[in-house]
């Protein structure tokens, strides 16, 4: 399987990429197709917590895109209650075989750091984000404190 | 002595041929003829130079100035003639042939060659000469070549010289590519250019095997656009020949069909021929009367009801009729059913008809046609910004206006009729199917642009039933296919919105 070599290399590259926000990555012991990245956003209101992101690679990776979703709950205009979000870079339509998981993580991190309330998944949260930003920040911080993982030292 | 020299000469040439790439040394005399001097040509290429790019400039005969860039400097030819006493007593006779060198460059090269020969008396010098020219050109301060100064001018017009050099440069670049090692960013293998493909104009390189696997994987799914370069975000398109090689004849003709069909469907007046065994492209030839004609089977049909063209008389089926018929069939007793069978030509036909109406009803209340390609789109979740993956069009679910590809969300901002309504009614409309009033509102909103649409009876909204439903597993099995056409008014309306 051509995916194995590529995934192994990508896993090593991601672990050694030096970007604290997504270098914490584990792959299932018996399954190279399932990874978990601990995403550490650096902007408020998410910078006090860590968020688990599950990545599932298809068997015919890299010809098909991986499925990426949050495993940790996050209060964000662009992420739904089940942890799903819309990231153009990993849609079937836009996917390119040369796209690296690191690029996907980079795109996800920037979406989390800089919400796009004009392209929301959760309209209520987006509205709050735009109309009552203070309240949004408070709710999101609270939500992060309650639900997010501990950030590694 | 002379015998020894000849042996040395042949030995040197053999070594040279094995060091240089194939076909770089050509014989211009019979090397086996011991009485003749050995003559030949060495092609000196410049692809080993770290930055071999050059710019050709000049002024053509007509006075136009030009400046074109080449990936690699075209090769020059080093002609050699080996005297019988070379290398023991004399040096080879060398002559440089180049299309692009000017007097000065040529002199520099010639003096470099004599220097090499003098410094290496009694030794084989051909390889040193070859390398000497490359080193000299490598040190050339600028890689802009003015063709007006080229020595060749006079023998050949500047236009044809330019053409010749561009061709030679391309050949050199191709040869360089084939012999260079590339790392494929998809499989992480290192492969020679021979097994790779370089996309244009982006110049991204991937190995053939990854490209082919990828294209096959795409072609087996839903093809919505031409095959592209494999690099993230890159829009360079693959050449037809590459796609053809990747997909093989059968898959390629399918792929090509989809693209051609897509291109045609993007034209405003095209619809699909409703004849089941045709389904080719038909054109609306008379908008007022909804007349459409198939360009393949010549079938003339009404673009509203998709039946044989019926002139000014109304479409045969009205919505009320359909509902009555469905109800009759579902609830009627044996006598009623028998009557219907007689009326419509057998049970099979009635059953098919009823199923068709049910399907249409389902489509009417659950899907909308894409305003561009008319493919049926079901919206099961999310906001009102809809993307048609078939023809890559963004449109507004509320008013079916076609939206800008760059910023489709703009439509829901500012002060247009759909402003602030990106998520409006998402829950009411779709969670509460029984609320007909709200549904009607939605449709009124959709068509309140003042067109004559509203005056038409609802029944005019008829869809040509296609296999899409069956394919989606809503009903029976059926042949392949994905689209069905909408009625003409709607198209007119949409064009107005655009």
TrEMBL record, chain A:
<dbReference type="InterPro" id="IPR016135">
    <property type="entry name" value="UBQ-conjugating_enzyme/RWD"/>
</dbReference>
<dbReference type="GO" id="GO:0061631">
    <property type="term" value="F:ubiquitin conjugating enzyme activity"/>
</dbReference>
<dbReference type="GO" id="GO:0008340">
    <property type="term" value="P:determination of adult lifespan"/>
</dbReference>
<dbReference type="Pfam" id="PF00179">
    <property type="entry name" value="UQ_con"/>
</dbReference>
<dbReference type="GO" id="GO:0005634">
    <property type="term" value="C:nucleus"/>
</dbReference>
<dbReference type="InterPro" id="IPR000608">
    <property type="entry name" value="UBC"/>
</dbReference>
<feature type="domain" description="UBC core">
    <location>
        <begin position="2"/>
        <end position="149"/>
    </location>
</feature>
<dbReference type="GO" id="GO:0000209">
    <property type="term" value="P:protein polyubiquitination"/>
</dbReference>
<dbReference type="GO" id="GO:0031625">
    <property type="term" value="F:ubiquitin protein ligase binding"/>
</dbReference>
<dbReference type="InterPro" id="IPR050113">
    <property type="entry name" value="Ub_conjugating_enzyme"/>
</dbReference>
<feature type="region of interest" description="Disordered">
    <location>
        <begin position="133"/>
        <end position="153"/>
    </location>
</feature>
<keyword id="KW-0833">Ubl conjugation pathway</keyword>
<dbReference type="GO" id="GO:0048557">
    <property type="term" value="P:embryonic digestive tract morphogenesis"/>
</dbReference>
<keyword id="KW-0808">Transferase</keyword>
<protein>
    <recommendedName>
        <fullName>E2 ubiquitin-conjugating enzyme</fullName>
        <ecNumber>2.3.2.23</ecNumber>
    </recommendedName>
</protein>
<dbReference type="GO" id="GO:0006511">
    <property type="term" value="P:ubiquitin-dependent protein catabolic process"/>
</dbReference>
<feature type="compositionally biased region" description="Basic and acidic residues">
    <location>
        <begin position="138"/>
        <end position="153"/>
    </location>
</feature>
Automatic annotation (TrEMBL), chain B:
<dbReference type="GO" id="GO:0061630">
    <property type="term" value="F:ubiquitin protein ligase activity"/>
</dbReference>
<dbReference type="InterPro" id="IPR013083">
    <property type="entry name" value="Znf_RING/FYVE/PHD"/>
</dbReference>
<dbReference type="GO" id="GO:0006511">
    <property type="term" value="P:ubiquitin-dependent protein catabolic process"/>
</dbReference>
<feature type="region of interest" description="Disordered">
    <location>
        <begin position="471"/>
        <end position="498"/>
    </location>
</feature>
<keyword id="KW-0808">Transferase</keyword>
<dbReference type="InterPro" id="IPR044066">
    <property type="entry name" value="TRIAD_supradom"/>
</dbReference>
<keyword id="KW-0833">Ubl conjugation pathway</keyword>
<comment type="similarity">
    <text>Belongs to the RBR family. RNF14 subfamily.</text>
</comment>
<dbReference type="InterPro" id="IPR017907">
    <property type="entry name" value="Znf_RING_CS"/>
</dbReference>
<dbReference type="InterPro" id="IPR031127">
    <property type="entry name" value="E3_UB_ligase_RBR"/>
</dbReference>
<dbReference type="Pfam" id="PF01485">
    <property type="entry name" value="IBR"/>
</dbReference>
<dbReference type="InterPro" id="IPR016135">
    <property type="entry name" value="UBQ-conjugating_enzyme/RWD"/>
</dbReference>
<dbReference type="InterPro" id="IPR006575">
    <property type="entry name" value="RWD_dom"/>
</dbReference>
<feature type="domain" description="RWD">
    <location>
        <begin position="11"/>
        <end position="140"/>
    </location>
</feature>
<feature type="domain" description="RING-type">
    <location>
        <begin position="184"/>
        <end position="229"/>
    </location>
</feature>
<protein>
    <recommendedName>
        <fullName>RBR-type E3 ubiquitin transferase</fullName>
        <ecNumber>2.3.2.31</ecNumber>
    </recommendedName>
</protein>
<comment type="pathway">
    <text>Protein modification; protein ubiquitination.</text>
</comment>
<dbReference type="GO" id="GO:0005737">
    <property type="term" value="C:cytoplasm"/>
</dbReference>
<dbReference type="InterPro" id="IPR001841">
    <property type="entry name" value="Znf_RING"/>
</dbReference>
<dbReference type="GO" id="GO:0000151">
    <property type="term" value="C:ubiquitin ligase complex"/>
</dbReference>
<dbReference type="GO" id="GO:0016567">
    <property type="term" value="P:protein ubiquitination"/>
</dbReference>
<dbReference type="Pfam" id="PF05773">
    <property type="entry name" value="RWD"/>
</dbReference>
């Amino acid at each position: 399987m051509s995916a194995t070599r590529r995934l192994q290399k990508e896993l090593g590259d991601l672990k050694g990429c030096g970007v604290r926000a997504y270098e914490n990555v584990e792959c299932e012991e018996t399954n190279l197709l399932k990874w978990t990245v601990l995403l550490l956003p650096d902007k408020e209101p998410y910078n006090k917590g860590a968020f688990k992101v599950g990545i599932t690679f298809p068997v015919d990776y890299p010809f098909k895109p991986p499925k990426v979703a949050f495993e940790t709950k996050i209060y964000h205009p662009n992420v739904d209650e089940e942890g799903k979000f819309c990231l153009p870079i990993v849609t079937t339509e836009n996917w390119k075989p040369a796209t690296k998981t690191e690029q996907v993580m980079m795109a996800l991190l920037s979406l989390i750091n800089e919400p796009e309330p004009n392209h929301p998944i959760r309209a209520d949260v987006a509205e709050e984000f735009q109309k009552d930003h203070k309240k949004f920040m408070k709710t999101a911080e609270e939500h992060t404190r309650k639900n997010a993982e501990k950030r590694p030292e | 002595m002379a015998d020894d020299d000849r042996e040395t000469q042949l030995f040197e040439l053999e070594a040279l041929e094995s060091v240089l790439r194939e076909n770089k040394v050509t014989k211009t005399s019979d090397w086996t003829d011991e009485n003749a001097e050995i003559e030949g040509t060495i092609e000196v290429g410049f692809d080993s130079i770290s930055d071999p790019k050059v710019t050709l400039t000049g002024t053509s005969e007509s006075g136009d100035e030009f400046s074109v860039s080449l990936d690699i400097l075209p090769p020059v030819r080093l002609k050699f003639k080996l005297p019988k006493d070379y290398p023991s007593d004399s040096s080879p006779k060398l002559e440089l042939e180049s299309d692009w060198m000017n007097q000065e460059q040529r002199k520099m090269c010639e003096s470099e060659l004599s220097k090499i020969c003098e410094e290496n008396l009694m030794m084989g010098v051909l390889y040193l000469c070859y390398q000497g020219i490359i080193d000299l050109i490598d040190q050339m301060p600028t890689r802009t070549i003015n063709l007006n100064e080229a020595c060749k001018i006079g023998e050949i017009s500047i236009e044809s010289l330019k053409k010749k050099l561009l061709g030679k440069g391309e050949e050199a670049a191709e040869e360089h590519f084939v012999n260079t090692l590339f790392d494929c960013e998809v499989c992480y293998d290192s492969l020679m250019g021979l097994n790779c493909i370089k996309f244009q104009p982006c110049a991204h390189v991937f190995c053939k095997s990854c490209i082919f696997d990828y294209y096959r994987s795409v072609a087996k799914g839903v093809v919505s656009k031409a095959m592209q370069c494999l690099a993230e975000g890159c829009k360079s398109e693959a050449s037809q020949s590459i796609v053809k090689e990747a997909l093989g004849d059968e898959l390629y003709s399918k792929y090509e069909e989809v693209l051609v069909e897509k291109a045609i469907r993007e034209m405003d007046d095209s619809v699909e021929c409703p004849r089941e065994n045709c389904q080719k492209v038909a054109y609306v030839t008379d908008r007022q009367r909804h007349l459409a004609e198939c360009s393949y089977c010549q079938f003339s049909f009404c673009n509203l009801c998709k039946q044989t063209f019926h002139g000014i008389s109304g479409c045969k089926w009205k919505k009320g009729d359909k509902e009555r018929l469905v109800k009759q069939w579902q609830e009627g007793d044996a006598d009623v059913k028998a009557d219907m069978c007689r009326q419509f030509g057998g049970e099979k036909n009635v059953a098919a008809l009823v199923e068709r109406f049910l399907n249409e009803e389902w489509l009417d209340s659950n899907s909308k046609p894409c305003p561009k390609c008319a493919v049926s789109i079901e919206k099961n979740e999310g906001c009102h910004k809809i993307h048609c993956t078939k023809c890559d069009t963004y449109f507004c679910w509320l008013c079916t206006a076609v939206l800008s590809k760059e910023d489709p969300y703009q439509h829901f901002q500012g002060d247009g009729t759909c402003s602030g309504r990106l998520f409006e009614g998402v829950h009411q409309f779709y969670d509460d199917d029984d609320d007909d009033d709200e549904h009607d509102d939605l449709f009124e909103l959709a068509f309140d642009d003042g067109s004559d649409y509203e005056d038409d009876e609802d029944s005019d909204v008829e869809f040509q039933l296609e296999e899409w439903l069956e394919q989606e597993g809503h009903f029976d099995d059926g042949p392949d296919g994905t689209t069905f056409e909408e009625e003409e008014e709607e198209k007119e309306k949409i064009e107005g919105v655009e």
